[in-house]
Design goal:
The chain is an alpha+beta fold. The chain has 2 domains: 123 residues, no CATH class; 269 residues, Anthranilate synthase (4-Layer Sandwich), CATH 3.60.120. Helix content is 32%, strand content 35%. The protein is built from 11 helices and 20 strands. The chain has a 20-stranded antiparallel sheet that branches. A hairpin with a 4-residue loop joins strand 9 and strand 10. Helix 1 packs antiparallel against helix 4. Keywords: Isomerase, Magnesium, Menaquinone biosynthesis, Metal-binding. It catalyses: chorismate = isochorismate.
């Protein structure tokens, strides 16, 4: 018998016991043996319950899959308040997305949460009720009964019928020139401009299958997928951490500056060495570092900025400087508002760049360049929601952005967003 089946049986046995008809929040944990190549993403994809959320840390050490919700939160502030006011265990996890405008979120306390840290996994069932945990246990039992067995993820097999960009290339080139002219007038130092590519196919697109394909090929990335319902999802494979908190210890980073990657190791190394030496990309990265440090300095102990390193991905390479510190208070809402959006996805100064984006970018970023991950009282981790896509039935919207600073060349910035979008686009258009 598969490990997931054994775990479900044990959960059902617990729910059959006497549970008090009192309000509150409670969880039941089942140790989950990793002995049968269980894939939590495939298990999620087999279910008809929503929301579904998958998240994997970029080094592969941590992974979670959440199914169903007992509580929804429209902001991270409300999620944090729930954790604190209910005196919940420090490891109670709420997961999901924060939008580009960080006051909007789609976070939830899952009905079922599978989580793995290294080689140890657990399946957790959450109960929550303002009236009767006994009643919620009955609902949870019915929820478990209607779950399906895991099955292999079907490979993507679609035919593209239409592709458009917003803005199209001529408008993009003009927008970049407008941005550099505005920078020259001193309105801001940097602005990150984005483009969407809308792909329309001859049949519905399976977001879980797209996530699986990206997870397989886009290495050294966070992988995240939020399936809102049977028709819509948001997913991506991002190289960038927004923050990781363990107690009061905080790690964040500046990921800015880009060059193409190459399948040949020697050629990729030469491109990486050029990136390390390039003045425009170094300036772009240091603007982000300085902004993060300024935002954090009043709320932390000493800040440690590590030397620049190259992050090599499948289609692009980036400059990264890690920033480590200790917070005065373990406050995830504060982390979100201080760090998002960073200068790497909005610009600098943040408000001036944000105003330019809101005025001239011809679409709503929604979840793009927001963040995806989880929070608990003990720890939290969110990645920046980059290299991402919105799936709506048979349409997929791909997002890609480029940092514009003094000296940016419009044609080169167009090629940069082409390279970034290729990480997911090539998966959808494989023969």
């Amino acid at each position: 018998m598969h490990s997931i089946s054994v775990a479900m049986e044990r959960l059902c046995s617990f729910l059959a016991q006497d549970i008090p008809a009192t309000p509150g929040v409670r969880h039941i944990d089942i140790a989950f043996p990793l002995n049968d190549a269980f894939d939590p993403l495939a298990w999620l994809g087999a279910q008809a319950s929503y929301p579904q959320f998958y998240w994997q840390q970029r080094n592969g050490e941590e992974e979670l899959a959440a199914l169903g919700a007992v509580q929804h939160f429209s902001s991270l502030a409300l999620a944090r308040q729930f954790l604190k006011t209910h005196s919940l265990p420090d490891d109670t996890r709420i997961c999901g997305l924060n939008a580009f405008s960080p006051e909007k979120s789609h976070l939830f306390l899952p009905r079922l949460l599978w989580q793995r840290l290294g080689g140890v996994a657990t399946l957790r069932l959450n109960l929550a009720s303002d009236h009767s945990l006994q009643d919620d246990a009955q609902q949870a039992s019915a929820f478990l009964q209607q779950l399906s067995q895991s099955k292999p993820i079907t490979a993507l097999a679609m035919h593209k019928v239409r592709e458009t960009h917003l803005p199209e290339k001529p408008e993009w080139l003009r927008l970049v020139s407008q941005a550099t002219d505005t920078i020259a007038r001193g309105a801001f130092d940097k602005v990150v401009l984005a483009r969407v590519t809308d792909l329309h196919f001859d049949r519905g697109v399976n977001a879980i299958a797209l996530m699986a394909a990206s997870r397989r090929l886009n290495l050294n990335c966070y992988h995240f997928c939020m399936v809102f319902d049977a028709h819509s999802a948001f997913m991506g494979s991002s190289p960038e951490r927004l923050w990781r908190r363990r107690g009061t210890h905080l790690r964040t980073e500046a990921l800015a500056g880009t060059v193409a990657s190459h399948p040949d190791d020697a050629q990729a190394q030469r491109l990486g060495e050029w990136l390390l030496a390039d003045d425009k990309n170094q300036r772009e990265n240091m603007l982000v570092v300085e902004d993060i440090c300024q935002r954090l300095q009043r709320h932390t102990q000493a800040l440690e900025v590590l030397p620049a390193q190259i992050v090599r991905l499948r289609k692009v390479q980036h400059l990264r400087r890690c920033i480590w510190t200790e917070l005065h208070d373990a406050d995830d809402e504060q982390c979100l508002l201080l760090l998002q959006p960073t200068a790497a996805v909005a610009g600098l100064p943040r408000q001036s760049a944000h105003d330019f984006i809101r005025t001239f970018e011809p679409f709503d970023r929604e979840w793009y360049a927001g963040s995806a991950g989880y929070l608990s009282l003990a720890q939290s981790e969110f990645c920046v929601a980059l290299r991402s896509a919105r799936v709506s039935d048979s349409a997929v919207r791909l997002y890609a952005g480029a940092g514009i600073v003094s000296g940016s060349v419009p044609e080169e910035e167009w090629q940069e967003i082409e390279n970034k979008a290729a990480g997911l686009r090539t998966l959808l258009l494989m023969d």
